[in-house]
Design brief:
alpha/beta; Rossmann fold; UDP-galactose 4-epimerase, domain 1; 2 domains; about 40% helix; binds nicotinamide-adenine-dinucleotide
């Protein structure tokens, strides 16, 4: 299996490259990453010498690069994206370019140059918008609330249209909030860990009651691999582990693990368009592909906290005022 992985230097991408190399001895991976926000070459130092792994610095919006690479693989897993909702409020245009135009550029390369290649789009629960009650299924309509989720939903629409019109072999995964090692500290869990270690106030939007459905990153990786191998063309697969937790509870759990006082929690101005709750029904993925999450929330949160404690050298270089900012959506022109 020869796979082109995009965005493989980021949080999920680097965990996915390691997952594939560890679990699929015959795989060969080409990782294309523009080395943008979220990317860190150190994430994959330990596989750099693996003969099955090649890194190419490049942009998925570059059609010449993609048309050259697409001949060399039999599948593409598109993980590359701009991913921080706050940044998408501060500077939406880069989200449209990288997330929507980038996906379109890959689809065009497949359509023109390697029609048989399988394409897996790594999408997000955020495309459905907020779940005021119940849990979204794959046939629910997207209703994105912010420029990030709109750019991902638009990409999903292109993916499905290329299946229907051009018969490309595509599938989409839509996963809930990930956590685990190598996540850039602008996201809730690592930001809370690092600010707590520095005895800085822990910023919580609004009243802290917004609910996210959490999954350990390795469970997301195993789901992507299962959909790549066994997913049906033209189908969407929800990926979730049933850990719906209000943000304030996440902060309290982390402070408890670090033996820091809850008085560090400070409520800050909520970001515009902040969805109150996300929730996915992943029974289709579990019943049709035999995938299920393996990691318990409490144990993996503890192991994630331990990882950040042991790997200060990894996060210190970019744990600056912008990355750890209490209200990054206010930083217009963040890019
Ligand atoms: N983090 C989550 O909780 C979560 C949940 C569901 C889905 N997702 C999806 O998973 C994917 C990865 O998320 P992440 O949290 O690992 O993000 P990340 O920000 O850690 O990594 C994104 C990577 O994509 C690369 N990239 C961005 N634009 C590119 C381009 N034009 N060309 C080449 N490389 C480019 C970046 O350099 C970076 O290495 C995204 O598509 C995101 O929508 C994330």
């Amino acid at each position: 299996m020869k796979v082109l992985i995009t965005g493989g230097l980021g949080f999920i991408g680097s965990n996915f490259c390691k997952y594939m190399l560890a679990n699929y001895p015959d795989c060969e991976l080409i990782n294309v990453d523009k080395v943008g926000i979220g990317a860190n070459p150190a994430n994959l130092h330990d596989v750099e010498n693996d003969k099955r792994y090649t890194f190419i610095k490049g942009d998925i919006c570059n059609p010449q690069l993609l048309s050259r690479l697409i001949h060399q693989v039999d599948s593409v897993v598109n993980i590359a994206a701009e991913t921080h909702v706050d940044r998408s409020i501060a500077d939406p245009n880069v989200f449209l370019q990288n997330n929507t135009v980038g996906t379109f550029t890959i689809l065009e390369a497949i359509r023109r140059h390697n029609h048989k290649a399988r394409f897996l789009q790594v999408s997000t629960d955020e495309v459905y918008g907020e779940a005021l009650e119940g849990s979204f299924k794959e046939n629910d309509s997207p209703k994105p609330s912010n420029p990030y989720s709109a750019s991902k939903a638009a990409a999903d629409m292109f993916v499905l249209s290329y299946h229907k019109t051009f018969k490309l072999n595509v599938s989409i995964t839509r996963c809930t909030n990930n956590f685990g090692p190598y996540q850039l500290p602008e996201k809730l869990i690592p930001k809370t860990i690092i600010r707590a270690l520095r005895d800085l106030p822990i910023p919580i939007y609004g009243t802290g009651q917004n609910i996210r459905d959490w999954i350990y990153v390795e469970d997301h990786c195993s789901a992507i691999a299962a959909v790549l191998e066994k997913g049906a063309p033209g189908e969407i697969y929800n990926v979730s582990a049933g850990n719906e937790i209000p943000n304030i509870e996440i902060a309290k759990k982390i402070l408890g693990m670090l033996h820091k006082p809850e008085s560090l929690i400070t409520f800050v101005e909520d970001r515009p368009g902040h969805d109150t709750r996300y929730s996915l029904d992943s029974s289709k993925t579990q019943s049709t592909l035999g995938w299920k999450p393996k990691f318990s929330f409490e144990e993996s949160l503890q192991s994630t906290v331990d990882w950040y404690l042991k790997n200060e050298h990894w996060w210190t270089p970019f744990a600056n005022e912008v990355i750890l900012h209490p209200t990054p959506w206010k930083l217009v022109g963040l890019h």
